[in-house]
Fold this protein.
Amino acid sequence: MDTLALQSPSEPAPKRSFRQQMHLAREDAIVSAVNRLLAEKGFESMTVDEVAAEVGIAKASLYKHFPSKEDLAAAAMVRVMQRAQAFLDGLDTKRPPLDLLREVARWTMVVQLAGEMPSLPSENSSLRATLTTNKAYVDGLMDVSDRLGAWITAAQAEGSLNPSLPPIAVLYTLYARACDPVLGFLKGSGQYSNEQIIEMVLSTCFDGLKAR
Amino acid sequence: MDTLALQSPSEPAPKRSFRQQMHLAREDAIVSAVNRLLAEKGFESMTVDEVAAEVGIAKASLYKHFPSKEDLAAAAMVRVMQRAQAFLDGLDTKRPPLDLLREVARWTMVVQLAGEMPSLPSENSSLRATLTTNKAYVDGLMDVSDRLGAWITAAQAEGSLNPSLPPIAVLYTLYARACDPVLGFLKGSGQYSNEQIIEMVLSTCFDGLKAR
DNA sequence: GTCTATAGACCGATAGAC
DNA sequence: GTCTATCGGTCTATAGAC
């Protein structure tokens, strides 16, 4: 465990490293719990007491890490954005841009079906204020949007993506797949595997409902 | 107005019809307020006090009409379903089934952009319980789904709709357009008119993102 | 011994219910 | 208009790392 290594005599640990490690580990556990609860019940229905109970710590301890419920949600969104950036980093950018976009859409659906995609109400003003002032989140969102935007325009220039759609509309359409209620409905019908559901929604998203 | 017609001497009104009319009119005003508030802020953020204030009646009076907040939301959904049924009734069923489906999708978007589409959290269990035991809502939903389902299979048989998609997946995809966050995002960008937004989302829905 | 983080009681506000 | 439950957020005594 890293904690022990940092305390080994050969590599003297910085002061208070044990506590720092504990602090970070606990923060990670908090964000994981928030992420799961946000995916499961949404922001309004999630209570801070639930988060504390799931992590196994007292509610007051939560407030030593995050000053408000909104900041808890923001931390979960920051982590999702980091996961998205890591996924984008792992893609081979030599592939056709349309394939890259499809892979991104597929990834968001996998995360959602795994119950790991936090979904926030877009109308909550205090939450929006917290999110838009969270540099890590805004920077991550901008980075992801820039990378996707480049692939969108490249795909349109290449002729593989409908060029009459504004890139921003394509971008939002892809983002919307990450919180598409259709996935939950189809899963709730109990007739299809996760893979089948993802293939169907990818088909409607990229190929449309009409016959080709 | 119907109220006057019912009270005309040629067709004697039933006893207490005035009170009944007032009762119905107030109920209609309540449902309208609930509908608007649900569309604007969602179920969790809507408070019963707000509803009472918007209608201009005492909160206690609300409970003479509807026994709970969940039933208020259910009443709004029943009305939306009735509006949908009325819209379907007005369509010319001689038209190609794909055109009919497109018109339905367009209608849901018009309603949503008009701020008149109540959107409920699909995960709230007490709300789900109330909805699934509301006969008017369930019957309306079944009727609408049956009619759309017939057009979907007809369009697939005709070759105008992708026949490899399960009809239920097509149905859910159309329903999802009624609460598509993409509409709100595009409207929030301030760059497009409602008509442009609807045309873009109709295009991505039926034609897909890929170039044809 | 000191200092920090914790646990769990506690508070004010607000919502649903009647 | 009142009552009760619940939620977000705070306070204080204490346990444990250093």
About this structure: Residues 204 and 210 of chain A are 9 Å apart (CA to CA).
